[in-house]
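Reader question, answered in our methods column.
A reader sent in the components of a multi-part assembly and asked whether the whole thing could be modeled at once rather than chain by chain. We filled in our standard form and ran it. Here is what they sent:
COMPLEX SIZE: three components
ENTRIES:
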Amino acid sequence: MYKPNDITYPLISWYKSNKRDLPWRYAFNHKNAPYEILVSEFMLQQTTVATVLNYYDRFIERWPTNKDLSNATEDEVLEIWSGLGYYSRGINLLKTSKIIFHDYANKIPKNIDVLKTFPGVGEYMSSAIASIAYNLPSKAVDTNIQRVITRYYQLDFKNLARNRKMVQDIVLLLTSNDSPRDLIQGLMDLGSSLCTPKLPNCEKCPLKRGCHSYRNSKFEFTLKKIKKMIPQRYGRVYLIERSDGSYLLERRAEKGLLAKTYQFPTTDWCEVKPPSDSPKSYQKMNIVGKVNHRFSHFTLELTVIKVDYESRDIKNITVPQNGIWKKPNQLDQLGLSSLMRKASKYIKV
DNA sequence: AAGGCGGGGCC
DNA sequence: GGCCCAGCCTT
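And here is the structure of the entire assembly that came back:
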């Protein structure tokens, strides 16, 4: 039915001369490569390569091997992860590293079913590690590959789950024939550079000769998502300063949004706008600015309030029990979210 | 099957 | 503004 070689030869030929020069690709035969692939895959979940490049080198420099990472703490990992988002990925990467060190003799497993048992490693990542780190056949299908293959064979994509299974079958067939590592990464590079969601550059595509969509001049495949209303929420964040110039921070809850990251104390974030000026207690407080931030499922506006810890105003605020005090120049050593980094900008005011 | 879970870059 | 990105997990 499918003729894999129509894809394999032109794709790999194109890949060899057009592949992106990425730090986790420098030498796949290097002994430490599987660890570096593991780190890169965790970082790359729902995150662009350009963004990951700002974090990957610092991570590897801090923990060059899986053994090094397995000895790290969650706070240390969050410090490096700060700003990257989806912080549970960092927590899960650390957990996975410890499991590999203790239960798998510090070797990244090759078996896909074993890989999938690790926290934060799912259907895609387990296959991607097998193919990219160990050059094994797999059905590694990310959104890039799903789009490329769907367009190439002009597959039905009304049902995205079913479409994904079809693409997985094809990718398994492709990688079983030849060069799993180059094939997977070639398809991804093609999807990110030429076979893009909007305005694909078909004229430069090495696969245009066999591409059904190109032949039929149809490129409409995009992951259609039902657009839903994103609620707006409001709250206040308190920059509480002690007389020695340090500020109060606390750790967020173990689960949920921004879990385990550090923050300046805040109110709850509600869809009801806080009565901006009416309460007397609030009126006395020192409003130094506003922070706007967009999460995937709501937007947030925080009013930034500066408070002297020794003043009477502190009585109007719920002060966290196990907070920590940090000087402004120590904030970089803390796992702050981008939201809280925005709030911290008002410290200098 | 659907929604929570970050953040930045693009148009 | 909306869309997208080397997804995973819980319910």
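What stands out: Residues 46-48, 50-51, 83-89, 161, 198, 228, 256-259, 293-297, 337-339 of chain A lie near DNA strand B (CB under 10 Å from a C1'). The beta strands of chain A are 232-241, 247-251, 262-263, 286-294, 299-308, 324-326.
Send us your own complexes using the same form.
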